């Protein structure tokens, strides 16, 4: 199962970072390609993603863990979606830790675990590269939002 992990220090206290990453409504402000968030309920929400051609694609998520202010985890609900053809499982974890000696800085680590459907020799490498790019863009967006 491809695992991609990216970390960065963000110039904001852990509580401020937590307030953003734990609230799905904020994802449109920092997560790449998210146009808007819909249907937020008891731990679930829908992202409307923008494709390269400008069309919208819906992706549903369910929060599976929340330990304020240090960890939040969500899983993509794949059944009945276009993502189901290529992914068997997708889970995102965000970990927050104080930056050593910096009370107003937080180390943010985002992990994306994806289990691909079927077998492909190069699939895991391609997915890891795409995930690394996506998570890097997410950390860039988070740093801009909290600056």
Count the E strands: 7
Largest sheet report: 7 strands, antiparallel
CATH homologous superfamily annotation? START domain
End-to-end distance, in Å? Answer: 34 Å
Shape: globular
Tell me, rounded to a whole number, the average pLDDT.
90
CATH class: Alpha Beta
Unreliable sequence segments? none
Number of domains: 1
For the biggest β-sheet, the strand order reads 1-7-6-5-4-3-2
Strand content: over 45%
Which value, in Å, is the CA radius of gyration? 15 Å
SSE layout and pairings?
Blueprint: E1 3-10, H1 14-21, H2 27-30, E2 34-38, E3 44-50, E4 56-67, E5 71-77, E6 87-99, E7 102-116, H3 123-146
Antiparallel strand pairs: 1-7, 2-3, 3-4, 4-5, 5-6, 6-7
Salient structural properties:
alpha+beta, seven-stranded antiparallel beta sheet
Can you put this structure into words, describing what you see?
There is one protein chain. 24% of the residues lie in helices and 46% in strands. It is of the alpha+beta class and 147 residues long. It has a single domain (3-23, 61-146), classed as START domain (Alpha-D-Glucose-1,6-Bisphosphate, Chain A, domain 4). Strands 1-7-6-5-4-3-2 form a seven-stranded antiparallel β-sheet. It is globular, with a radius of gyration of 15 Å. The termini are far apart.
